[in-house]
Amino acid sequence: MNRAYVSGIRFAFLTVVIFACFVVLLGRLVHLHLVEGEKLARIVEQNRERFQEIKARRGNIVDRRGNLLASTQAVYEIGVDPESVQPEDMVRAPEVASLLGLDPQEVWDKFEQRLRTVNGPNGPEIRNVRWAELADSVDEQTYDAVMALKIKAVYGNRKYERLYPSETLAAHVLGFVNKEDSPVSGIERFCDFYLAGQDGWRKSEKDGRRHELSQFSSREVEPRAGLNVELTLDLNIQHKVEQEIAKVVEQYKPKGVAVIVSEVATGQVLAMANYPTFNPNTFWSTPVDNLRNRAVCDIYEPGSTFKIVASSAALNEDLVTPESMYDCSKPTVEYRGRTLRLPSDSHALGELSVSDIVIKSSNRGAALLGLELGEDRLYDYAQRFGFGSPTGFPLDLEENGILHPVKKWDGLTITRLPMGHAVSATPMQVHFAMSAIANGGVLMKPQIVREVFDENGNTIVQFSPDARTRVVSSYTATQLTNMLAKVVSKEGTAKDAAIEDYGVAGKTGTTQKIVDGRYSSQHHVGSFVGFFPQSSPRLVITVVVDDPQLRGVGYGGVVAAPVFRNIAEHCIQHLGIPPEPESPLMALSEDLR
User: Fold this and answer.
1) Which residues fall within 8 angstroms of residue 392, CB to CB, at 6 or more apart?
2) Where in the cell is it found (predicted)?
3) pLDDT tens digit string along 5-38?
C-alpha cells in the first residue's frame, strides 16, 4: 500500500488497534498461564484422568450347617456423561426413563447438563459434568436392558449391596451394614476385618471424546473378595426360638423378650433372639430402640435365678449340706450384733432344708445362706459366677451389670443380694452362670464364631471353646443340679418346664420392676433358666420376659417355663438327643443321702 494514499490519522488508529489486540492477547496468555494456570491445569487433568475405586465383594455369613445368613448381591449405578451425548441420543432418553422408572424430563435434563459449579480451593469453579447419576442399586437385568440401547454416553458401575435372605432371623446377632457400607453392629462389625475384603482401583486417561489415550494405558488393581464367617448358630433352632417369642408377644404383650440357647460344654451359642426385632435389609425404617440386643445390653434384677450363687457357695465352702435345716418362719435374725430384718416369702414355709430352700425358692432361706457366707465370700462367689463383669460375648456393647463392692453395701444388702435383689445382670450373665453349674462348675466364655474360611472352603481362622474359670467343684455342681431338678417337678416352681423322659434342672425368677424409684406390684420380669438332660447336660436355655401383661403376677414359671419346654423339645428332635436311661430323680435320693 502506498502511504501517499493513507491518511496519517487512519494509519495511527490502525496501528493502535493492532497493538491493543496484541496487548490483550498477551495479557490473556499471561493471566491463563501465570494467574489461573494451576487451576486450569487441575481442571484439565480432572477431566482427562479417571480414577475409579472397585469395591470388593463382602464375604458371606453362614450358620454352623452352612445355611446362608448374610450375602452380597451385585447391583449397578447407572449414569450419563453429558459431554458424550450425541443429538441422536436425545430421542432415546424416554426409553432410558422407562427402563429405570424415571420421569423423561428428568433424564433429558441430565443429558443436557454439561456444566456445574463446584467449590474449589480458590472459590467457586465451573467444571464440565462427566457423570450425572440416573439410578442407583439397579439389578443386572435392568442394567443389561439399558446397555442394550447402545447409548455410548450412558454406562454403569457395578457395586455390591448387602442382603439378608432370612430377613429378621437372627437380626441382632448379624447386625447390618449401612448405606455407606460401614458395619454398624453384630457380626458385621465384629468380623469386619475378615468380611470386608480389599478394594481395588482402576486409573485411566482419556481424551474429550472418551477415547483412551494410548500412551496412558489403563492401570488396575483387582479387588480381593472378603472371607466368609461361620457362626455357632443353628438356623433351625434360631427359627424355633423366634417362633416361640412371637407366641409370647401375642399372648402377653410384653415390653421385651430375650432368649438364649447354648451348648454346655463349649459355650457355643446356638440361638439368640430378642423382641422387639428388626429387618436388617430395611434397618432405616426401624426405631433405634429395636436395634438393641437386649440379651447382652439390658440389665434387670435376676431375682430367684441368682439363688444358685448363695446356695452353691455355701455348699462349696462346706458350710452346709443339702439336709441342713433352717427356720424360715422368723422375720428377723441376729447378725454380728445387729438385728436384721429378713425378706418375706409369698407364704409361710417354716423349717426348710437347703435343698428345699432351692426347690421352694425361699427368699428367707437364701438370705440365711448369705449370712452363713458373710459379705466377702458372698461377693467373691457372685464375681466368680460372672456377675458385675462382661461375659466376653464379642458382639455389641455388652453391659457389665451392677454388683456393688462390699464397702458400698447397706445394712440390708447381705440379706437381699442372695435372693437376686441389689444386683443387676444381663440375660447373658444369668445364662452363663447357670451354664457353669451344668458344666460341672466351670464357667465358659460365650462363643458365637466357629471359623473363618475362604471361597474354596479352606479354614483360615478357627475359634475354640474358652473356659474362663472354675466357679465351684464338680461335686458341688452335681449337688446343686440335683436340687434344681426338683424345681422342675410338681413340688417346684417350674413344673411347666418338665420334659417327659428327660431330667431338667433349672430355676425360675420373678422380680418386681423399679418404677419411679420404687418396686412396682404391677410390673414384673419373669424368667426361667435351665439345662438338660440332667445326667449329662447338653444345652442351657434362658428365657426372660419383660413386663408381661396378664392378670396377677407374671411369674417366671408361667410366662417363661413353657417357652423353655417348647424350645427344648424341638432341640431334642433336631439334635437327636437320646432320652436318659433312668429318671434322674430316682438317683437323686441316693446322691443326697
Assistant:
1) 445, 446, 466, 468
2) Membrane
3) 667 787 777 788 888 888 888 877 776 676 666 6
